[in-house]
Specification:
The chain is an alpha/beta fold. It has 5 domains: 37 residues, no CATH class; 26 residues, no CATH class; 203 residues, Flavodoxin domain (Rossmann fold), CATH 3.40.50.360; 36 residues, no CATH class; 307 residues, Aldolase class I (TIM Barrel). 33% of the residues lie in helices and 14% in strands. The strands form 5 sheets. Strands 10-11-12-13-14-15-16-17-19-18 form a 10-stranded mixed β-sheet. A 5-stranded parallel β-sheet has the order 6-5-7-8-9, with helices on both faces. Strands 1-2 form a two-stranded antiparallel sheet. Strand 8, helix 6 and strand 9 form a beta-alpha-beta unit. Bound molecules: flavin mononucleotide and iron/sulfur cluster (SF4).
Length: 765
């Protein structure tokens, strides 16, 4: 037997070990792991440090002051030695609450009235008055301009006399201003400058930009994320309203209703900083006088604020309760907001909002303070767009429109009268073969979403971004517009010069120009309406303003589809069309994309209306880019018509803005060249010098080297009735007559030329 050392194993055991060592190792490892896991589940994870000794004190910003998370005290012991005692402080509340949803309860701690912080420091600060105005027909815009000039004169006089606290005013049109820049918090653009808001607006009981503005104020007030008085950084505000007592004699009947509303919301948003009471003036009687009084009030208020006296105590306008009763919170509507603010307070404690400790908290709104199953309010009955009793109705009928139902109109145009007398048709005859005396001009929507500077509607048009009115059925409109049109034609019977054969022909409408005023595709049943026209073989030319892409995308076949291209870039379009839609440029571009997609389905036209000083200079390249984007079949270029209304003059439009025909021609030549440079196949096809209008056409409409811009109307109806897909190339008409071609003037030699002395530049749009 071999000798075994103390740690030596017998050979048998070693053999056994070599034979079974792997299963033995594996089972031992498995056993140990099972024991470890068992201990873990029974006692939890063993702590890395079980001693109660605290770690190093860490700084914290509780209450905005650096404090340790433990208290450290030195305590003398009986032995005479000293001991260090650590006491752990509770963790800051923040980390416990930050991430957990909270059910909100409690009451808002109300700010005492009349104590809105007066942030103005007369030692270092200056005041800049900001004038905000809105205007549809121009009265308020003009008044706001005069007000700015009066205040600035007065301020300059004061500056000369040594008072440098007041800075000159800046004016903003509420149609274009970014509300978020001015009506969520007070501006902070200039250092050591505080702002005073002067708001001057008309009131309209139709849909206008003022509704959007009021909605913004209201939403800001109700937005739980925003402080209740987010505009309290202003040093004051005041509002003036223009109204018309003839139509709205009392406040109950709506006199200056929107100014009253704006004043109310601003009182809430500023924490009751009304510096001078709401002024109201009747535009037809005492408007100027009331405005003068209000101006004196503003001046007094500015002097007081600049002198550090604030808004005054205990008098109307001071923000005192006496003046502000009507602005008390509505009992229910703000309940939730109050509680949320209360929550903010309890959570934030003394920590300032902008300190590092402030953090938003998740709030479970699903369980919070639901109104106890309040019955849903009954929907308000829909209004008529143009009620018979409204000033719009009176104004439009005065301008010669026949109002059909509550939102449609028809008007006999001057070219129809001219054609009846054999004095020539409009450019539509020259380019497309439409005889003006067979043409009816109408619209199923008098409302649109622009306020174009050259609009014929004299500022009385209803405007809106969405259809909010009672809808008339298409049959009613169709019958109504035909009746209105025939009635007006019949009235021409006795007019000297009317040709009998043309009069007889005119009693059968062959064409409908849906381009009168307003936006035809705004009407929810536009497809049904055009189907009725087509059923009676009345062709349709529909003009839209490139603001309603969704409606454009779903539009059925029309004989010719126009999009107004009033400018070549965003800024210029904003200035000239004054659109209500804030995303007007995006809408415009989407419409161009849709037109491009539809170019083999619809006969598409870009209509450019040139306004000198607005949209001609240096815009040729921009227009060429738009043509490249939309690839229309045709581009019609026209000079604007000067209509001499207050709207146009308030927009700065005069006869000087009407281009001469030679200028229109020069523009068209430049545009043609710009299109060629882009490799686009267009050419100048025809002209109608009489109405300052030139036609560029895609070479798709050139056959055997000749322009064929006219339409085969019979073929159009055949194709439509076949129910099969078709496009503009399928109903191209005869070649454009010689007299209509570019360079030949475009006047039908069979008609009699009448010299309209002194009005040569007046054209239709
Ligand atoms: C369609 C329309 C609706 C109007 N609605 C009201 C109204 O509800 N209350 C009022 O006081 N004045 C109303 N007016 C009168 C205008 O507020 C008044 O003419 C004002 O001066 C127009 O200002 P603007 O020219 O700056 O647009 C209305 C006028 C029109 C044409
Ligand atoms: S789109 Fe037509 S109707 Fe509307 S404002 Fe412009 S010109 Fe007038």
């Amino acid at each position: 037997m071999p000798h075994l050392g103390i740690f030596e194993l017998p050979d048998e055991l070693l053999d056994l070990w070599h034979q079974y060592r792997i299963p033995i190792i594996l089972s031992t490892f498995g056993l140990l792991t099972a024991v470890r896991l068992g201990l873990h589940f029974k006692y939890g994870r063993p702590k890395a440090m079980v001693s109660s000794m605290p770690g190093s004190p860490r700084p914290s910003l509780v209450d905005g002051v650096e404090k340790p998370l433990v208290d450290i005290k030195i305590r003398p012991l009986e032995s005479g030695e000293k001991a260090v005692v650590y006491t752990e402080k509770p963790k800051p509340v923040k980390s416990a609450r930050k991430h957990s949803p909270k059910r909100v309860t409690g009451k808002k701690v109300r700010r005492p009235k009349g104590t809105g912080q007066m942030l103005f420091d007369p030692e270092v600060d200056s005041i800049r008055p900001l004038i905000f105005y809105s205007s549809l027909a121009g009265t308020t815009e003009k008044a706001a301009g005069k007000l700015a000039s009066d205040i600035n004169h007065w301020i300059r006089d004061r500056q000369t006399a040594g008072d440098s606290k007041l800075l000159e005013t800046q004016s903003h049109d509420l149609s274009y201003v970014e509300y978020d820049d001015f009506f969520i918090t007070a501006p902070k653009d200039e250092p050591n400058t505080k702002y005073f808001y002067i708001v001057i607006i008309p009131s309209y009981d139709i849909d206008t930009v003022l509704n959007t503005f009021l909605e913004h104020l209201q939403e800001t007030h109700h937005d739980f994320r925003i402080d209740t008085a987010p505009l309290s950084g202003l040093v004051g505000y005041t509002v003036f309203g223009f109204g018309d007592r003839e139509g709205w004699s009392t406040e109950e009947e709506g006199f200056c209703s929107q100014a009253i509303e704006v004043d109310k919301w601003l009182a809430k948003l500023t924490g009751r900083k009304r510096a001078f009471p709401l002024g109201m003036g009747d535009v037809k009687t005492d408007g100027a006088e009331r405005l003068g009084e209000w101006l004196s009030g503003i001046q007094d208020a500015l002097v007081d604020i600049a002198a550090g006296k604030g808004l005054g105590e205990g008098v109307a306008g001071s923000g005192n309760a006496v003046a502000s009763d009507e602005e008390e919170e509505e009992p229910n509507s703000k309940a939730s907001l109050d509680d949320v603010e209360d929550l903010g307070k309890s959570y934030r404690g003394p920590v300032e909002k902008d300190s590092e400790e402030w953090a938003p908290m998740a709030i479970d709104f699903t369980t919070f303070n639901k109104p106890a199953s309040a019955p849903a309010p009954a929907p308000a009955p829909l209004k008529e767009m143009v009620p018979k009793s409204s000033p719009t109705y009176a104004s439009l009928t005065k301008q010669g429109y026949t109002i059909v139902g509550s939102h449609s109109g028809v008007k006999i145009c001057r070219w129809t009268k001219s054609a009846l007398r054999g004095r020539g048709s409009c450019y539509k005859f020259t380019f497309y073969g439409i005889k003006s005396h067979l043409c009816m001009e109408s619209t199923p929507s008098l409302s649109c979403s622009n306020k174009c500077v050259f609009c014929w509607r004299h500022g009385t048009n209803p405007v809106g971004t969405t259809w909010r009115w009672k809808v008339d059925p298409p049959e009613v409109i169709f019958e109504g517009v035909k009746e209105g049109h025939y009635k007006k034609i019949k009235m021409m019977k006795g007019v000297p010069g009317v040709r009998a054969e043309r009069f007889a022909e005119a009693m059968r409408i062959r064409h409908c120009a849906l381009s009168l005023v307003g936006e035809p595709i705004f009407y929810p049943y536009i497809n049904e309406f055009t189907a009725m026209l087509h059923k009676e073989h009345i062709s349709s030319f529909l003009v839209c303003n490139a603001q309603h892409p969704d409606q454009l995308a779903t539009l059925n076949h029309v004989t010719q589809l126009y999009v107004s291209i009033d400018a070549s870039n965003k800024e210029s379009l904003r200035k000239i069309d004054r659109p209500l839609h804030r995303d007007f440029w995006e809408r415009f571009n989407r419409c161009l994309d849709i037109l491009r997609e539809k170019r083999f389905e619809q006969r598409t036209v870009f209509r450019l209306t040139l306004v000198k000083g607005f949209n001609i200079d240096e815009e040729v390249e921009g227009y060429a880019d738009l043509v490249a984007k939309g690839l229309p079949c045709f581009v019609e270029v026209k000079g604007v018509t000067y209509c001499g209304t207050s709207t146009s003059s308030a927009a700065g439009l005069t006869m000087q803005n009407v281009p001469f025909y030679a200028e229109v021609q020069a523009f068209v030549v430049a545009l043609d060249a710009a299109l060629a440079r882009r490799g686009l196949s267009y050419g100048i096809a025809a002209e109608h010098a009489h109405s300052c209008c030139v036609l560029l056409a895609s070479t798709r409409f050139r056959r055997d080297g000749k322009w064929c811009t006219r339409i085969d109307y019979g073929r159009f109806f055949e194709l439509l009735e076949s129910g099969k897909p078709f496009g503009p190339d399928d109903y191209v008409g005869d070649e454009t007559p010689e007299w209509a071609l570019w360079g030949n003037g475009g006047f039908d030699p069979r008609d009699e030329r009448v010299d309209r002395k002194g009005k040569k530049k007046i054209v239709e749009i």
